[in-house]
């Protein structure tokens, strides 16, 4: 096979989901392609690379097997990833590249690194790049992103409060799983041998709601037709970034019909602000059958800033989500009205566009009860006319002028949320 660029498949998935097993299976079945492999491991010793060497024709001394250890390619090793791949492409010819990420890697930044290279704003060029001007993007094309999901551990992962450290960042397993599901082209539901048919159907139903675009395939011991994960041409950055179920639900809200196994989603909307105390209490006690919630909200007393909520499993992140159009100077507001005439229709005379839109995805959710609880956390008629400054507000504060705080928002919010007891 001869092409200008080498197509790449990236394998992501929680610890122990079966990434190495899938990779070994692929290397042993698709023998017509000359495949190079990059294996990333958090530890000093790259155990996964050793296992690839043990179970396939590729040896650890081989140029075809690159190990990036002691860190994660979605964060601190992003520059190293680009360098290692650029050097590999220069050193020899091969047809295809497969990258196995660590179990804590988020697929989005890895895809960004491969498609945008050092041009990402927050990624400093390496010495190698400064000297040579060569980076991986010149040689590679992201072809397919694959997430391997452990069917046996699926619900336990959402319910667990376990988290892992990725460098300095603490990552909650349930929220990592959601991120990996929401950003992929192909999803391998692995370890199906350990789970009964009904549980598999429940899991599939949830995955389809969280990620309507991906192709979902059941696997046992990582055995998958190589054509399903190699050279599929499925990756499209825009489509992948916008494919999460919650994004679609916000764009085209519909009360999803109760599926066979009770997985549903709905959008909560309100033109009244949340009472900071009551909403914080509600989030502290949020029902565990709500697997995912995401959207923006209006908190009484924060009339200049839209806040965002990003919750998956037990992790709840609060972060700035831009400003209200109503808080802009009149001329700037007019520009918005010209380009978005529908804004004017939904405009409140006193509060403009301020309001709340949240998507909730879960199993056996009682929509009416959840709506009632969320409504009860918004201000009453009497409170609307009262002193909003008197409410106790445990939500994190953000400086609206501080760009750095915005870009680093989730971590700050998560920490602050923990301090105020919004995350557990
Ligand atoms: N029963 C069963 N076991 C499996 C299956 N797939 C993988 N395993 C086992 O699960 C364990 C973890 O599999 P790996 O392939 O190492 O998982 P991984 O995602 O690469 O793990 P990390 O690299 O640690 O993140 C191994 O002991 C595999 O043999 C499967 O479908 N069924």
What is the top-level CATH class of the largest domain?
Alpha Beta
Mean pLDDT: 85
Q: Can you list the strand order of the major beta sheet? A: 3-2-4-1-5-8-9
Structural class: alpha/beta
Ligand types = guanosine-5'-triphosphate
**Radius of gyration using CA atoms only:** 23 Å
Oligomeric description of these chains: single chain
Spans of 5+ residues with little confidence (pLDDT < 50)?
Answer: 402-421
Q: What's the CATH H-level homologous superfamily of the largest domain?
A: P-loop containing nucleotide triphosphate hydrolases
Q: Which geometry do the CA atoms define?
A: globular
Q: Return the domain count.
A: 2
Main sheet attributes: strand count, strand direction, barrel closure: 7 strands, parallel
Proportion of beta-strand residues: 15-25%
The N- to C-terminal Cα distance equals 52 Å
Brief overview:
It comes from Salinirubellus salinus. GO terms for molecular function: hydrolase activity; nucleotide binding. The N and C termini lie far apart (52 Å).
Structure write-up:
The protein is α/β, with parallel strands linked by helices. The protein has two domains: 6-243, 3-Layer(aba) Sandwich (Rossmann fold); 252-419, Hypothetical Protein Yjia, Chain: A,domain 2. It is 34% helix and 21% strand. The chain contains 17 helices and 14 strands. The strands form three sheets. It has a seven-stranded parallel β-sheet with strand order 3-2-4-1-5-8-9, with helices on both faces. Strands 10-14-11-12-13 form a five-stranded antiparallel β-sheet, sandwiched between helices. It has a two-stranded antiparallel ribbon with strand order 6-7. A hairpin with a 2-residue loop joins strand 6 and strand 7 (169-172). The structure holds guanosine-5'-triphosphate.
